[in-house]
């Protein structure tokens, strides 16, 4: 099993400001319910007490959908500007059968989490990064996009309205999923005439069934996640269904997830199905460069910055598979997975 040294444990601890202090990351964009008191008064439903928790078995949370009370929705008007959004009870979304998102996959999503502190506040992590990444993806898919302010404001409202679904400290998080989609009807291949931005939330525990145990990763050399010139560098909804077959095959063999190689040469690392990957060798931490086929993860960027602050040499570059097999440590990062240690790597007949 790949061991974890004390230096890396310290690095990972620095990425946990939400359940302890914010000393390392206070300069970044964390938002609390105290800072959003005006929004809280405007959006707080009167159907429950501020200190009330939803009826959830917090000790047995997995990563599944348990819908929170409210959804935030905002529509794009004909002139390409998003109007004022609103909160409404969670429920199904009505779409035309000819909606662009259903027919042509014109859609993006983001993911972030709300953490509850011991004193009852909610903390959100670097939302401006998620907002900027959505704008980049929207441009690639020819969609208008909410401004960074609109995005951040909408996520804050959603978190506050669903506060009772945020697990107690140390029990999990409130996963928040913003979606941007071409909701207007279209028959010929073209951008949609109307767009919808919505956000829903669900309390979650660990992403992997292994919990905090080290993961077993299988290196995939038949299927590919992304290609040069494609949409691998954005959170397009079309990026994820194609990995399901490789994931299902790997999980049927007892592996936690799949690591993909570059589609051109099948020799350099790309990323895992839903997260970025890092290698540690001595004092050097390496991760594949974001060159258009790899998602620029918010957690990934945070690890890079914190590692440099801790004195590590960080390299963002092409990483041959052989280096992965000889690394001292390997770990994955992402909003859903957090920071997950890797215990074994399997490639063909080598483990």
The counted number of beta strands is 16
Order of helices and strands: HEHEEHEEEHHEEEHEEEEHEHEE
Shape: globular
For the termini, the CA-CA separation is: 11 Å
Helix proportion of residues, in percent?
10-25%
Arithmetic mean of pLDDT: 86
Oligomer: single chain
Describe the main β-sheet briefly: 8 strands, antiparallel
**Fraction in beta strands:** 25-35%
Family: Belongs to the class-IV pyridoxal-phosphate-dependent aminotransferase family.
Organism: Salix viminalis (Common osier)
Protein name: Branched-chain-amino-acid aminotransferase
GO molecular function, one term: branched-chain-amino-acid transaminase activity
Write a brief caption for the model.
With about 350 residues, the chain is an alpha+beta fold.
